[in-house]
Amino acid sequence: MKQFPTDFLWGGAVAANQVEGAWQEGGKGLSTSDVQPKGIFGDVSDRKGHTFSLKDTAIDFYHRYPEDIALFSEMGFGILRVSIAWTRIFPKGDELTPCEAGLAYYDKLFDELAKHGIKAMVTLSHYEMPWHLVTEYGGWSNREVITFFERYAKVVFKRYAEKVKWWLTFNEINMSLHGPLTGVGLQDGCSESDVYKAIHHQLVASALVVRACHLLIPDAKIGNMLLGGLVYPLTCQPNDVFETLQENRKWLFFGDVQCRGTYPGYMLRYFRDKGIDVVITEEDKHILKQTVDFISFSYYMSGCVTADKALSKKIRGNILNMVPNPHLQASEWGWQIDPVGLRTLLNELWDRYQKPLFIVENGLGAKDQPDEQGQIQDDYRISYMNDHLVQVREAMEDGVDVLGYTSWGPIDLISASKGEISKRYGFIYVDRQDDGSGTLARTRKKSFYWYQEVIRTHGASLKA
Length: 464
Prior knowledge:
Layout: E1 9-13, H1 16-19, H2 61-75, E2 79-83, H3 86-89, H4 100-115, E3 119-125, H5 131-137, H6 144-159, E4 166-170, H7 180-184, H8 192-216, E5 221-227, E6 231-233, H9 238-260, H10 265-274, H11 282-287, E7 294-298, E8 303-305, E9 315-317, E10 320-322, H12 339-353, E11 357-361, H13 379-397, E12 402-408, E13 428-430, E14 442-444, H14 446-456
Helix pairs in contact: 2-4, 6-8, 12-13
Family: Belongs to the glycosyl hydrolase 1 family.
Protein name: 6-phospho-beta-glucosidase
InterPro entries: GH, GH_1_N_CS, Glyco_hydro_1, Glyco_hydro_1_AS
């Protein structure tokens, strides 16, 4: 197979809190992202003190989206993954009536995409939730938040039923194990038991909105979204192999519930062994049977696992702590580059679930520097993405059903982990620096033209 199928969906992915800015415009309320100016791993700020955050303006996509969508169209995008900021629709999260200004904004955004023939894929919750629900309700630890999320989802399903046919529930839902505030709205001091109780409520909410989507937009598709945290055994010692199985199950558990509709036995044992008391009602069990139509996931790197604590020198990468693989090179941020791992992951997910797959995040963060002519010669990004897409093609030859690929992020944006812009992913350079300086001007990188050609040729231009 030299070419991808003609109906394969090519595009890019962004998140509202990392590109929009305008954090106090249009009636928007305060979100968890707004109070984390230095990203997921930064301290929570008192926004009354006006703590500076790059995300407050981000790349000003809120005002500049027509310009950016025109550039995406020039590359040939067939789909753009975006998220709706929950706090633009329900500023506090518990209101009965949505904010019309927020709804109208996304109407304009989706209309602009349609004008260019680009489909919208919408994530309902991408690393943010109303801060009011955290402070007043305790985040997802409170079952009442399920009702608030379902109300929000139904409002946007009804509003955009004719404009959006691709939906995702929670971004990287398994991330809650590593960043509880960002994932489930739990603040410092929460226990593992607290986190899993909140996760259960989120899984129930996910199933409820899957059901709502099927009822309100029968011709739409709705999927889950996993952080693809693939790990290998560091050695062939049986203990390393079993430890790796357990480590992979920590994130596959979320897919098991959302794709199979029930809690797996290994997770119930884990709860028993750890004394974690998750209340799973009979009604919950019935609701969880509402499974997703497809599986979407992010993939940036792989890692290793060992049962030998002396060898377990971990690195920080994509939120996960992983043991370095001695056979792989790493990016500037220590994220180990493993294109074959993407093929492995695609096959693993297909074999496990037999549901269509969508790669909704993949890309290389790097410190791009303009040359004397002001151009970005990002051959390293081209190499990374070429090698990964070749492996996607190989997985499809293996028989894996892959619906599409949306790179992260097609335009430079603010990183989720540290709230910086110096880790750049885009095909489009944005003139903004970590100190907030810059004109916000957009410039096409070398990779812009490379990706344009990949899309134009349906992948035939890739170099094996």
